[in-house]
Amino acid sequence: MPDVRLASPQGKWVLLTTVLGSSMAMLDSTVVNVALPRIGRDLDANLSALQWTVNAYMVTLAGLILLGGALGDRFGRRKVFVIGVVWFAAASLLCGIAPNAGVLIAARALQGVGGALLTPGSLALIQASFHPDDRGRAVGLWSGFGGIGAAVGPFVGGWLVDGPGWRWVFLLNVPVALVCVPVALRHVPESGGGERAHGRFDVLGAVLGAVALALVTYALIEAGEGGLVVVVSAVAGLAAAVAFVLVERRRPDPMMPPDIFASRQFTAVNLVTLCVYAALGGFFFLAALQLQVVVGYSALGAGTALLPTTVLMLLLSARSGELADRIGPRIPLTVGPLLCAAGMLLMLRVGPGASYVADVLPALLVLGLGMVTLVAPLTATVLGSVSVVRAGLASGINNAAARAAGLMAVAALPLLAGMGEEAYREPAAFDTAFDKAMGWCAGALVAGAVIAAAVVRRPPPDCKRPECLRHGGVTAPPLEGEPVRKRLG
Fold first, then answer.
1. Fewest C-beta in 10 Å: which of 44, 75, 445, 455?
2. With b meaning 16 or more CB within 10 Å and e meaning fewer, what string describes 111-145?
3. Comparing C-alpha atoms, which of 14, 315, 260, 279 is closest to residue 135?
4. How far is CA 250 from CA 173, 200, 256, 258, 259, in A?
5. Rounded to the nearest 5 degrees, what angle is found at the Cα of 270, between the Cα atoms of 73 and 486?
């Protein structure tokens, strides 16, 4: 049984280590959007290169995050976490010195691999290290500090882009890793290692999943250019997706067991997740560009302007979870996406000369309230829709689905909205396409609300409850760890 107490010096070191590690991945997933216009100008990159700057990271992260958690269980959570931090920092250094867009995109893909190793491990280390009496408070502090980091991140990122330059958005990860790694090696106890040692890793499934995401993403981003390569990529991506499903059905220890989708509620909530996080991923990618390219904000101004959504999530998500416990998840999962859709439609007012107080802030407040309403109930419903022993797996699948939805939206929305390769250099053209994209995002959110209203029901009273009560991230729902009874039993 884990015995580290939160009040002890070791407990504080463990908490610091996990906060630093998870913050590296969380910040990069949000701050990079603010830096995109400057990256495009400095590296002479077109819109598709900016899309890949975001999506290369998301492809490897979404495709490998389940495998990363399994590696920690097998070889030791601290070991895999430390490897992930070192890998992430090395890839960040390569991002920071990238001489051109091609190198930056490749380095971002490597960053995603590091993120897939360290992201599951940060919460797992807390759950495996702290005494049961302190674990809830430790998780609360971890999620709270992570939320603060997510709130501060766009502000710091904007300041770096406008000041020392966009490269420091990535280079900042190196000193963080230099603090995190020695503290982890000295103060964090090892856990895992030997658990489920009889099983085989589903490396083939992970590779097929990542390849399918990469090929379909490529086809969507390059579809505007047309040609045989795009068609072949689309067909090959769909073939890889079919092969992934077939492999998962036949393997004895699949990464994503198909029978978990036998739960109608689990399937429905993941469909809601796909709709919601596709819209949110597309929104935060395009909104950072809209505020800078069309409205004329600096990178710091754009990062600061987007803060209300994260702050509302951090302050109110725990209360939203309590409300959903009382009234059930169907109403929050229906109303939340509709509020988000309303917020995105309000963004249609944000154009040249827009006022922050009269135009931008109301849209972001409505969007933030919608996110507050839906995120905590979504996590709780995912955990409650499967057996307790599969709650950690269910959370991982839901988290991966959200990230995959976001990357698909970043790939597809510019195509659907008619954005050309040079659109982000032409304010009038970008503004027109942004309005169309917000309509697509609102439509996806309405679809999610309809699914929730039709299918979602209250989970059983004895299901696993979320441990991450505060959430400040905007790219994916909280990633919950394995249930206690499985880990300690």
1. 44
2. bbbbbbbbbbbbbbbbbbbbeeebbeebbebbbbb
3. 14
4. 40, 13, 11, 10, 11
5. 30
Task: Classify residue 435 as exposed, middle or buried by CB count within 10 Å of its CB (0-12, 13-18, 19+).
Answer: middle
Q: Which helix (H) or strand (E) holds 351?
A: none
The H-assigned helical ranges of 76-131 are 77-96, 101-129
* Cα–Cα distance for residue pair 190/82, rounded to 1 Å: 11
Cβ within 8 Å of residue 179, ≥6 positions away: 20
In angstroms, the CA 64 to CA 256 distance is: 11
Cα–Cα distance measured from residue 310 to residue 154, given in angstroms and rounded to the nearest whole number: 10
Q: Tokens standing for 328?
A: 């059930």
CA angle 361, 474, 134 (to 5 degrees): 120
276, 441 in Cβ contact below 8 A? no
What per-residue string of b and e applies to 393-402 under the rule 16 or more CB within 10 Å gives b?
bbbbbbbbbb
Q: Considering Cα of 29, then 32, then 33, then 34, what sign does the dihedral take?
A: positive
Q: Give the alpha-carbon dihedral of 297, 299, 304, 306, to 10 degrees.
A: 80
Residue carrying the six token digits 């069309």: 294
Helix (H, G, I), strand (E, B) or coil at 333: helix
- Partners of residue 461 on adjacent β-strands: none
CA-CA distance, 131 to 408, in Å (whole number)?
Answer: 40
Residue 4 sits at φ, ψ, to 5 deg, of -70, 130
Mean pLDDT by 10 residues, the chain (489 residues): 80 90 81 92 94 94 87 87 96 96 96 91 83 81 77 83 93 94 91 58 87 94 85 95 92 87 92 96 94 94 90 85 88 96 96 94 96 89 85 87 93 92 91 96 97 90 72 75 44
Residue 475 contacts residue 306 (beta carbons within 8 Å): no
Task: Provide the total of helices (H) and of strands (E) in the chain, helices listed first.
Answer: 17, 0
Q: Is 447 in contact with 276 (CB distance < 8 Å)?
A: no
The distance from CA 47 to its chain's CA centroid, rounded to whole angstroms, is 22
**Is-contact 469 317, C-beta < 8 A?**
yes
Closest CA to 98 of 42, 156, 154: 42
